[in-house]
Specification:
The protein is of the alpha+beta class and 87 residues long. The chain folds into 2 domains: 39 residues; 41 residues, no CATH class. It is built from 2 helices and 3 strands; from the N terminus they run αβββα. It has a 3-stranded antiparallel β-sheet, with no helix packed on it. The longest helix is centred in the first third of the chain and has 33 residues. It is elongated, with a radius of gyration of 25 Å.
Length: 87
């Protein structure tokens, strides 16, 4: 491959990398604006929620509501109603 062709190929690669970087920066900036906007994205009434499962670092936690909130792993485990309601 001649020197001008190599130079054009390298400039093309550089342009593609710069374009991808700009796109990723714009996406990240948009996500940060959404995160810091303070707007409510989803609102669900407290009465409509009957279970709360989630996974964090490979650990799954799950709660369900009968008359009070109970931990699925051990229903005798004390669950703070106020903590659940503040989620």
């Amino acid at each position: 491959m001649s020197r001008p062709k190599k130079l054009c190929a390298m400039l093309g690669i550089l342009a593609a990398v710069c374009g991808a970087t700009l796109i990723l920066l714009q996406i990240e900036e948009r996500q940060e604006k959404i995160k810091n906007s303070g707007k409510v994205i989803l609102r669900i009434s407290e009465e409509a929620v009957t279970s709360l499962p989630w996974e964090y670092e490979g650990t799954t936690l799950a709660f369900h509501k009968e008359e009070t909130w109970l931990y699925d792993g051990d229903e005798a485990f004390p669950v703070s109603e106020n903590k659940i309601k503040s989620c």
